[in-house]
Amino acid sequence: MASIKEDRRDFIKFSTLGILGLTLGTGVVISPYALNAEMRLRPPGAVNEKEFLALCIKCGQCLQVCPYHSIELADMAKGHGVGTPYIDARERGCYACSAVPCVLACPSGALDHKTEKPEDIKMGIAVLEFPNRCLARTNTPVPKGHSKRIHDFTNAQNNVTQLELDMLEKLDEFEGKQCTICADMCPIPNPLSAISMVGDGVGKKPEVYDGCIGCGVCEELCPASEAAIVIKPRMSYEDYYEKGNKS
Questions:
Q1: Structure pTM?
Q2: Which stretches make up the 4Fe-4S ferredoxin-type domain (predicted)?
């Protein structure tokens, strides 16, 4: 019996070392998962990714206090960083709560407590990555039932909040109108510092400014079947629009 246990330990040890060696040698096995973690949209106040993964104790406190049900915990299917909080902006963006309760709830420092108000949040940057999908640019009215996906997500939650209901009521009012959702639903206190609608010779399109915090609400609420505007996690306005020379 002892020899069987020893053989099993040796098998696990050398199999693990073999996989690790393959990973280090080729960068194929684990590095894609690490990249996925780097590209996740983290909650407000998240420190740099490497430090975040080291500090986060996977307690879920940030998730529990979020009044918009914006935060999820990564499962095995997400690969690297299992149990860590992230935001899927297409499902539910961050609504930049004035007291930033998720940061206050974090006991480990993975969410920096210097993030005290919406203007302090730096999650990423919004980018009109697929302009041909943009309803405003093609002068297409916001279609009937555009908010069904958002309603369905909200109704699936156990404890829908009044803040969510108020958001849905405002969103429903855009039906049949020219689309300005990404600009008019921006949740930060001074939305014009982050995004506005501008003419581009065809229709109108969202233009992003340096006040954008990367909250993801524009991506969530975009009424196109696939979002025209998306968030680039952990990038700043300078990173994308100035250093990247993007228009």
A1: 0.83
A2: 43-76, 83-116, 204-234
